[in-house]
Each structure stands twice: as C-alpha cells, then as structure tokens.
Write a structure and sequence with these properties.
heterodimer, A: about 270 residues, alpha+beta, Uridine Diphospho-n-acetylenolpyruvylglucosamine Reductase, domain 2, Uridine Diphospho-n-acetylenolpyruvylglucosamine Reductase, domain 3, Enolase-like, domain 1, 5-stranded antiparallel β-sheet, B: about 150 residues, Ubiquitin-like (UB roll), DNA polymerase, domain 1, globular
C-alpha cells in the first residue's frame, strides 16, 4: 500500500514549519508512525507533508523546577531510557516502553502521539492522569493548556490550523503505574489504566474507553473516600463509552477496565 | 521529486525519489536489495526491518525521504565477505529459521537488540523481538540463536 501523492517540504526552523502549514491540507510529519499508516490506507490524504524531524532542538527531556519538560520530538525509545524521566516520572518511561514494539519506539515521538489524538494511544492517557500541560506553537505564538482541554474527540484535539505541539510538561510523580492489555505487541490497547499519586491524591486514567483518554472520576472519588482498591475499581467504567471492535465488545471493555484498575491500584499500593 | 542522500551498506546514493516512496521499495526496487522482505505491509510483522543509524525500524513505514542523510543497513550489509555476521552465523547454527521469510527482519531486529542490550536474558530477547512475527512459529530456535550470538559477541 502506497500513500496517495503529496508534496514534501523539510522545515529548517519552527517558524518555517508553521509557515509551511498554512495550507489547510498540510500535515506535519515527525516519526510518521501514526500518520503514515493512515495515509497508506488512504484514510488521510494530505496535500503537503511538512517534515519537522530535523528540528533537533525539540528532542529533549529536562528538569524544569518541580516538573519535567519533554520536547515534542523526543522518541518513545528516548523516554524509555532517559535517566531524568526514569527518576522523576517513572510512569512515563514505563508507558513509553510499552508502546508498540522496539522498531516503532525507535521512530515514534511523544508530540506525534499527542497530536494524533487517538483515544487508544498510551501516552495521552498518562499525560491526562498526571495533569500535564501541552505547549503548542502557531502563528500567534505559544499557547499552554492542560491535557484535559487538549484532547477533544477521536483524532481531534484543540490544535488550530498551523499549530504544532512543541513540549509536554509533566509534574514529578514518583508513584505511578500503567497497566495495559493488548493481544499482540503491535495492537492498540484493548483497555489500559494509568494510576498515579498526584498532589496527595490518586489519579486514574483510561485508554480505549471513550472518544478521548478519560479520567475515572468515580474511582478517584471512591479512593478519596477511603474505599479499597477492589471497591473503587468497580466504578472504573462509570461515564465511559467504549466502542466494540475486533479486540473486544463494549461490555468486555467495561469489565476489563474494572479488572485492570484493580490491578493498577494494587500495584500502586497504599500511599 | 526530492533529492536525497542515503548511505546503504556503506555506499552513498544521491538520488531523486518521489516523496511517497517507502524506504522498503527504495531498497528493493531502486537498489535491487531484495533481502529485505515485505510481509504484512502494515508495520506489524517486522519482515522489512532494517537499521537506520544503527537502530531497527520497519522500512515499510518509513519514507525514503525520511532516511535522507542516514546510514541504512540491510541484511546484505551484515556479512564481511564470506564471513557471516555473528547473528547470521548463530541463526544458521541454531536452526533459527524454517521457511526463512521472516529471517532477514529477525536478524536485523536481533542486531539492534544486541547493540542496546549486549547480554540480554531470555525474557529480554523475547520482549526485544516482539516486533517480529514468524508464521512458522519457530520462536524457540530464534531465541536460542540470539542467546548464542550474545555469547559470541
């Protein structure tokens, strides 16, 4: 399967990339591991790909006060190995290591995963759970928004035309786990659950349980009220709207969300 | 057309490619390096695995233009003359192949894995090769071959 024809341009700076994206049908290209598969299936036919992979100054992980700043072009394999992230926000390094397979992690980027807006993606759920900020740049400069405002629908985000995700800012969170169920390494998560202690509370997020990554607010409330992991996990599917597909029915996913939430909370342990 | 400069198995190629050309077809059709196979064509099976700047990638999901300036290594670039690469030798000795179709991809994935983890455990090998599928299901001997290659390297 070959993508439909498109024009191709390499951006030499962020400003140039933003300028090149003026065409409504243009799309940015980083690792290409979300975009190229849909282009090959002709589900997406951009007129122009603006290759931003050469913007090396967007590939970093660094401490930023009480947070960690991650450049949009940091690859999953970078996150997996990064000593700062492994020490300061291990759940993100652990989750990166569970994306796809080594070949995918060598190419795929965190910015691409976030901008793609797939509710079955792993990193967006963790960013939502951690109350991370998404930094975007466009013709009008920089905007910073919480992950909860960024993910607006299936493959839909708050990105405006010509805007690019440039950085993710996550709090330093020592305790967090991501429990993922997929039938093969290459499959999307049938369901996955993130659980982390953020600011003295346990936050819980869900993958593949609705049109965007979701917070399991019922579970969080139950835990704040002193419920056991098992009792809290029973509320995991409250408010979720999973779909049915080859990997599982909506009912199966609701069940799985409870099972995986209990496992995640048990792994997280008492604070 | 876009001009690219891609070094493949040590030889630099300055060529024009169509932006939509996938790296695997550049290697197979433009350079005639047919050792890299196209299996599932959906970046699942790993038969098309090559190294880009030393790291394994699925070449059916990378555009040739994305490899501009990079060093690509295919299965044809591993051996030195008549001497097989240690991973190739280990696959031969441990019977790490049956029909052989997935083998170039497995060998390249294993080379990348051993660069990152020179002495992997059996579990690390199995997880490290999760991006490659063997339809003959000959996984045990593939894992043994990687263990043998790790010992030899």
């Amino acid at each position: 399967m070959i993508p439909a024809p498109f024009e191709y341009a390499r951006a030499r700076s962020l400003e140039e990339a933003i300028e090149l994206l003026a065409d409504e049908e243009a799309r940015p290209l980083a690792g290409g591991h979300s975009l190229l598969p849909v282009m090959r299936l002709r589900l997406s036919q951009p007129s122009l790909l603006v290759d931003i992979a050469g913007l090396g100054d967007l590939r970093y992980v660094r401490e930023d006060g009480d947070r960690v700043a991650i450049g949009a072009l940091a690859r999953h394999a970078d996150l997996e190995r990064d000593p700062v992230l492994r020490a300061s926000c291990p759940i993100l390094a652990q989750t990166a290591a569970e994306i796809g397979d080594p070949q995918v992690r060598h190419r795929g980027t965190i910015g691409g995963s976030v901008a793609h807006g797939d509710p079955a993606s792993d990193l967006p759920t963790v960013l939502l759970t951690l109350d991370a900020d998404v930094v975007v740049h466009g013709p009008d400069g920089e905007r910073v928004m919480p992950a909860a405002e960024f993910f607006t629908g299936p493959f839909e985000t708050a990105l405006r035309r010509q805007e690019l995700v440039t950085e993710l800012r996550v709090p330093k969170v020592a305790d967090g786990v991501y429990v993922k169920f997929a039938r093969r390494a290459q499959d999307w998560a049938t369901v996955a659950v993130a659980a982390a202690r953020v600011g003295g509370r346990v936050a819980v997020g869900l993958t593949s349980m609705g049109p965007t990554p979701l917070r399991a607010r019922g579970v969080e409330e139950a835990l704040a009220g002193g419920a056991s992991p098992g009792d809290a996990a029973a509320r995991a599917a409250e408010g979720a709207s999973p779909s049915s597909d080859q990997a599982g029915s909506a009912d199966y996913r609701r069940h799985l969300a409870q099972v995986l939430t209990k496992r995640a909370l048990e792994q997280l342990g008492p604070g | 057309m876009t001009q690219v400069s891609i070094t493949v198995n040590g030889t630099r190629h300055d060529v024009d490619v169509e932006p939509r050309q996938l790296l695997v077809y550049f290697l197979r059709e433009q350079l005639g390096l047919t050792g890299t196979n196209v299996g599932c064509d959906t970046s699942s099976c790993g038969a098309c695995t090559v190294l880009v700047d030393g790291e394994s990638v699925k070449s059916c999901n990378v555009l040739a233009v994305q490899a501009d300036g990079a060093e690509v290594t295919t299965i044809e670039g591993l051996a030195s003359g008549d001497e097989l690469h240690p991973v190739q030798q280990a696959f031969r000795e441990q019977h790490g192949l049956q029909c052989g179709f997935c083998t170039p991809g497995f060998v390249m994935a294993a080379v990348s894995l051993l660069r990152e983890h020179p002495s992997p455990t059996e579990e690390e090998i199995r997880i490290g090769l999760e991006g490659n599928l063997c339809r003959c299901t000959g996984y045990h001997n593939i894992v043994r071959a990687v263990q043998a290659a790790a010992g030899a390297a």
